[in-house]
Amino acid sequence: MQLNHRGxxxxxxxxxxxxxxxxxSGQSLMLEEIIxxxxxxxxxxxxxPMTVNVVTGQQLADFAGFSFEDLSSLTSGLSISGLNFxxxxxxxxxxxxLNAPISPRVTTYVDGAYIDQQRGIFSGLYDLAQVELLRxxxxxxxxxxxxxxxxxxxxxxxxxxxIDGFIQQSFTEYDGSNTQFGASxxxxxxxxxxxxxxxxxxxxxxxxxxxxLGYTNxxxxxxxxxxxxxxxxxxxxxxxxxxxxxDDIDIDPVVKGPGVDFDERIALANFASNMTNKxxxxxxxxxxxxxNDWTATxxxxxxxxxxxxxxxxxASPVRGSEQTVISKVTGLSNYEFRLASxxxxxxxxxxxxxxxxxxxxxxxxxxxxxALGPGFTLLxxxxxxxxxxxxxxxxFTHNTIYLSERDTLxxxxxxxxxxxxxxxxxxxRLFRVGEDGGLSPLAEFEFVxxxxxxxxxxxxxxxxxxxxxxxxxxxxxxxxxxxxxWRRGAANVSGQPNPPVFGGFDAEESDNxxxxxxxxxxxxxxxxxxxxxxxxxxxxxxQADSVEFRDPDGAVMLASPVVNVKEAVSYGLDTDxxxxxMQNWRMSAGLSYNTAELTDADNTPCSTDTPPGNxxxxxxxxxxxxxxxxxxxxxxxxxxxxxxxNLSNFxxxxxxxxxxxxxxxxxxxxxxxxxxxxASVDVFVGLRAAAGNWDASIWLKNAFDETAELKTERRSAxxxxxxxxxxxxxxxxxRRQLNPRTLGVTASYNF
Length: 751
Fold this sequence. Notes:
By secondary structure, the chain is mostly beta strands. The chain is about 5% helix and about 60% strand. It has 4 helices and 50 strands. The chain has a 25-stranded antiparallel beta sheet that branches. The model is unreliable at about 5-25 (pLDDT under 50).
């Protein structure tokens, strides 16, 4: 289904205008009150002067949300791409690159703790209480590079009163399965309890076939979590959590090109591409409330992560280029201490400090075949370990001043200081490949991958927020805000020697202006949120995708470095509505519009159809003014609804649930063109106990088998062994695409 912009908007608005929290029992038509912690204190969603979308753990279960990417179908204006442990989160038109050693534009917090190395934390969604998406700069309270937003994930607390738990099993086509469980055990009634939960999943990418090697991808994720909660009094609580995740995933990428359509979902790699991940992190959260009702909070985090990736870089049946990258982060730890007032009449304040220490090592191994002439084949073996370490600290304050019963002023300020060291040296060994496959050494040399000026950085920045909100009456609140965002510079880390000019990039700054309205409608049966924003980026960090350059051997290679563009602008509109139409009929919808474009971008490295010059490190540049700054669609929307009826004779009820997700055209920076728009429909039919202790459903995702490519990347040329030199294959990686129609069943039991 192809949709133009007008057709897309008509489709979504005609269906209705972020998913509500639906109660499954009771007779009231009033929406349940949604509590969020976006400003690091509990408050209702309708009182929070920013755009916040909430998805509960129950909603993820209802809509068979097995992967983190499923969140993007439940929230408009959110894009999640990549693999579970190599994930890019984007909102308001912009995400980040996955290769640079830099915090993403959308930061992530788990159980109150900042997670710097996001790779590994998104492998499966299980036993969660709530996920909150905060849109726009969050530089005061969430700091550390959050110019586009932040995601907070909260796992389920142990039950200190009684034993409880659940088990859930799902099966899908393509031999997929997903198993989840969780159980709470009180050790001291009303004071101390432990919760153990886990996940086993082999439900993703199982339909991708490597036709060169004759096998189908197999993916496996195993994870478990242990949470301990101690509440000896009303004033003190301590929460400890340990998270362990292991992944083993075949990543033979889907390709398109001459004779190959992306919707065939086939791979052509000449060897098996694989990624493995081992991540674990420990989080401690302590809260103490003093006699004057001030609350002290300490959050400490320790994280270790090792990822190994092996892939066919040219994606072709010809042995041309292959890479192995091992990323190891050890001893990464951060600490945050906050002191906050509670429920004052005039002024509520928060002050805090943040500190982080990190070390990472990324060994790189690459093999590239080149045909210099008929019968003369060269093999370049490249190693380039990257070592990165750093110390960061920040101090911040966030203040809410109640000017009157209807007027509130929020002022926040944060000072950041970051000190980092990075180094990367490439070693190249050249071999002549004999007819029998034997190797004869020819030469060996080294290149500095990170230039001296990029190896050590000490930077500081000030970010902040200014918000004014006015409540017209009990139902309508409006706000205006200004937020300052910042994102540090860094060195590019690559799997191969790149032009020295690609070595590093400078810090990025942004200014965001937002106007919003939150309106309780239909006498409390619905909630409407509308927000318009305009954000200007200076020294915008732009990933130049698939840039061809000339390497020291004279071969044409591809690089996707992060470079600075003088200015970029992002502006748009976010809307969502939740309505309880009847006691047994609920509906919600969201619609987002965004334009993110480069407004001052001359001499930017770019992908073109013209080969680069013949000089060492030559590459092409373009004036990209007016080009998309990100690879997200302008329009996106969703519609969710559920209708249920009681079966009184059986103390149960049947239900029908539907989810519409639609997006306008994606932009491919690699191909410099728009991709596909789409509209997909998921349908669920099920039966559940009225008391909520069991549920069984059959479902069909992407019911009409819609196809769409959502992110692409050009691949390198391959050796021409017959004539010498190299030839373009025309192959393109389809890094993300709409999953095919999938039939599944889910059964769960709560105790």
